[in-house]
Amino acid sequence: MTTGDGTPSTGPRRRGRPSRAESTTGPDARTRILEAARNEFAQRGYDKTSIRGIAKAADVDAALVHHYFGTKDEVFAAAVELSFEPALAIPDILGSSTEGLGERLAGYFIEVWENPVSRAPLLAVMRSAMTHEAAAKGLRVFVLRRLLGRIADQLDVPDAAFRAELAASHMVGIAVLRYVIQAEPLASAPPEKIVAMVAPTLQRYLTEE
Amino acid sequence: MTTGDGTPSTGPRRRGRPSRAESTTGPDARTRILEAARNEFAQRGYDKTSIRGIAKAADVDAALVHHYFGTKDEVFAAAVELSFEPALAIPDILGSSTEGLGERLAGYFIEVWENPVSRAPLLAVMRSAMTHEAAAKGLRVFVLRRLLGRIADQLDVPDAAFRAELAASHMVGIAVLRYVIQAEPLASAPPEKIVAMVAPTLQRYLTEE
């Protein structure tokens, strides 16, 4: 669970908005909005989800959704981020050395996807991003840049961003084949078996010249 | 281009149907149907494409579409296969030894995607497969099993099918990030750079214990 006030101020979300508003409405409202957004996007898809619908589900005024997150794209990005909990996960993935980085990253990714609570909205997100440019942009600008960017920043290899994206592409492709297309035997393979095979690939991309 | 009569008889397409029918209608009709199907799926998406629409675009009777390909799922699978030209490509990819297999496979895949003629229908296919179970099934049953199956059959490693799917997952993920989400720097990277990085991964999956 994301506590809402546990996450550091990250980029566009609070741009130009007074943070003291949070104290007047309580961090719970922000968390409620995010979780409502995640459910709405998961159940209705990108197209049919509205700021108003999210506000209604979270039992807040639509203006508060705009206040905390900005546009629908930005709410979408924040809702996706909720599944990945980057503020908590990234330090764990990066660890104190690059040894085992590939394994930690593959393990984290599979864990997020194996958890039904995060899987449903992620599936919705991927479907939306495949068919709606606005959702694709949300993934591209916020999620990829913020998630991968933070990992790439810590890498000591040439073309760090390119390599982080190659690693991400592999994991995205596994998600597509395993959870969306459900191709066998990948769909039924034990998570450990996938992690064991994929970890050396990610390790090579992220750490070896 | 696929000549229609150049492809060997592959599974469900001609199941139980007399092959001499081709000589009465000419191989051109079959090719025209396939190309019409590819265009229809690319332009309209899986849902809105009908056998009747394909027949109209190919200037043949709808019964002939059924005759050659069977159900809409099967036409879809054949239309996807048209982009990959497996009958021509697989022997080239497999080559005479496994040396360089990863590079040939990565190069082939990127080439298919870089070609605008095959890219448009592939994008449509991926979008359809993400959102329609019938299209996902088409990919799963026909394309993955037939394309990957033929490669996996030639591999001398344990879990060949699993490994072939891991390799495929990486390439699918690259397609998603590069061509659909258009994440930078991957979207603008030269194809050779991607092949150079990805080839050792595919080589490891397909040939190393």
TrEMBL record, chains A, B:
Residues 1-11 have a biased composition (Low complexity). Residues 1-28 are annotated as: Disordered. SUPFAM superfamilies: Homeodomain-like, Tetracyclin repressor-like, C-terminal domain. Keywords: DNA-binding. This is TetR family transcriptional regulator. GO terms for molecular function: DNA-binding transcription factor activity; transcription cis-regulatory region binding. Residues 50-69 bind DNA. The keyword Manganese does not apply. It comes from the Bacteria. Residues 27-87 form the HTH tetR-type domain.
